[in-house]
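Progress narrative, work stream C.
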Amino acid sequence: MTPVPHRSHADDLLSFIRASPSPYHAVASAAQRLEKAGFRELRGTDDWTGTTGGSFVVRGGALIAWYAPEGTPSHTPFRIIGTHTDSPNLRIKPTPDTGSAGWRQIAVEIYGGVPLNTWLDRDLGISGRLALRGPGGRTDSRLVQIDEPLLRVPQLAIHLDRSVNDGLALDRQRHIAPVWSLGAAEEGALLRRVAAAAEAEPDEVLGWDLMLHDIQPPGYLGAEREFVVASRLDNLVSVHAGVTALAAAATAAEEPQYIPVLAAFDHEEVGSGSDTGAQSPLLENILSRSVKARGGSSEDWSRALAGAFCVSADMAHAVHPNYAERHDPDHRPLPNSGPTVKVNVNQRYATDSTGIAVFASACERAGAPWQPFVSNNAMPCGTSIGPLTAARLGVQTVDVGVPGLSMHSARELCGAEDPGHLAAILGAFVTSD
């Protein structure tokens, strides 16, 4: 069985995932946990002068949080945990009502690198946010989460396509509109259903960011329940670990050597090209403003950044037993053997030897194992927010992640011990050398 401390962390992770079917819900879940740890939300229009302690800023599906107790020098270096809140999925189009052959369907668009076959024949709900008309011409945002089996992308029967097992590709334009009722497409039907779930009137809804999610709850798998299976492990495992590490740092008695930071970006799966992504100035603007709010100068900001370090935590590939030839023959990470350190000499990952040393040192302090990861030379290498953060801020960065299988699937798998290992390591990373 998984050791008790790791089981407790994994149980809490499953609760976090259940509450976080969309990036906006993940941010709300993280903010709620940080508030319980004594953090308070700051808004961009607030006066931050003299702000100390635990603070966080929310922008859509992104959250930036940091902890700077009173008396912390303005030039104190940052220790940044970089993560992302989004996952590949199916997102509802602005004009959603469609249908064919007597079926009512919903028009969706593919977000990120989705293995489409994993979304077939699954019971799907709807989650995301609505932009509502508010008083005085203002616009309000409201979360919506419908954990009911509303929709399904039905697979064509094998009798009607004998070649279905020859390849799993789907026509990306024609065959992914989920069915949700019988009858002709009725304009506004989805809007009415979603608005009711958000306790709003349809005419209040000005826009939305809605997506589909698998309603099967996360859980454990294996003879000894040694695996976690859930949607959005990539990258809620890292977001949850980062929140856990930051909250723990805020309760540490000793004077901090660093200012711990959690940067949970949105839109990583599509290149981070938005105001909430890692390519945006969001993190830079917030951290520089936090330095000035504590009385720091531009020189203090430069010093804090020069001494900063970032751990970019994203999911990694465990060696697949059915496709071992797709992995590097000498680097084959396994679940429950610790997070991986991702290396790519072409800088698809931002890791170098110094970064490995910093992370390995944190692993030693946490008493946690780690594994090296390198992609097979014959396979294209993925990337993460690490290189983007390094390029944007000039901050030294190491890319790491919990190894798993079925990455980007509607339901992913990782070891039940590794999320706890990652949280302990990140906690050691942000608090001391």
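Work stream C, second folded protein:
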Amino acid sequence: MIKTRPHSSRRLVAVSNRTSFGSPSAGGLAVALSDTLAETGGLWIGWSGKIFDMPRRRVHLTEEGGVSFALIDMSKSDYEGFYLGYANSVLWPVMHNRLDLAVFDSDYLAAYTAINQQFARAISDQTAPSDLIWVQDYHFFLIAKQLKDAGCHRQTGFFLHIPFPAPEVFRSIPDHRLLGEGLCAYDVVGLQSPHDCKNFTRYIQEELGAEQVGEERYRIGDHTFTLRLCPIGIDAESFSQSATSDAAENAARKLAKFLGDRHLIIGVDRMDYSKGLPQRFEGMATLFDKYPVLHGSISFTQIAPPSRSVVEEYAQLRQQLDELSGRINGDYGDLDWIPIRYLARGYERDELAGLYRLARVGLVTPLQDGMNLVAKEYIAAQDPDDPGVLVLSQFAGAAEQMKEALIINPHDRDAVADSVLTALNMPLEERKRRWRVLYDGICRQDITWWREHFLSAFDSAPAGT
């Protein structure tokens, strides 16, 4: 009989595309992993961030902040085939229901398989059978199966940060069975929302013949694994403190000079087609159309740092947003009023916290999102005595938890416009009531809760299967 081991007494090994090495200001996931890695003398395996013309198979071992790192370089062809290719031109669009943007290329799959194999070899070389391996996100569906095929027995977990689509959508990937079997080879699989769990369960039952053998347990052949609903959180209390830091107040003062007595509506998103930015801009144009009384009394600021700008779809999105903001400002602006301020650059965590706190409305309207932590950050940053209102897409994983937000369909321009108006006119007592429920929720299920909830699934799972 195989004995179980409490996860807290075992060394944790994190595996992800990028690590926190060299990024002391990294937040969220990096903090959650770093704490446990430091406590257990753990190891973080990931890409070094370096790209070379020729393949370099050497693993660089280093240490920072009490955490050991095993960093792997990539060649230019690896990066283009694995990262830009399969990860972000196949998996990302399909998982976000954008089949029209997917590029199915067999060379991409070969690169994806090879990089997964390279990481699996690093795990085999750098870990012991008693270690607990926690793999992060869609870059590494195949590692657990590759380890087993190589005779390397480790207890492995996988967390998917992005959505899992309907089986009909996932099956559009020519090699979907390879990916599905890879996922099911892990001992624990964590997903963000009940909707993701339903999609995944239906896929593995219909396609792989999975049998449910417990509340969270599924069996395929001779392997049994745990499927755990595990919505990721933030360090809510820390983010609340950031909102009153010197950097936060300085950022808020700068924007307040421009605002005057206008109410701020804010959006903060990585520039990605899944975030619904063109639809959001069109929704604000509808607001200005329907409610002329708001002209000059509100200001919408959208922060959208560029992302994967070398991919054609992202360059097209940037151009589309440039054109939309210019048109809307031209149509509705005046000598003393710019309706939309569109900033294609990033800001530090504390600065963003200050801007969130200043905003009467937080506009978070992705077309599809695994969770969306901006929604939680916006709530954490609010002044309890005068909180703003969150307008949230029904297609964000966060909507499952944050029901006191104003939940909308981001494709419906009128719904966007009307919800912003409702938020602007919401009485203080209702704003405070909604905020309190939302804030208590993000504090209760914060980033530490997420980490412990996922890792506790290993306590009842056989070690070293």
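The first helix runs from residue 29 to 39. No further action is required on this item.
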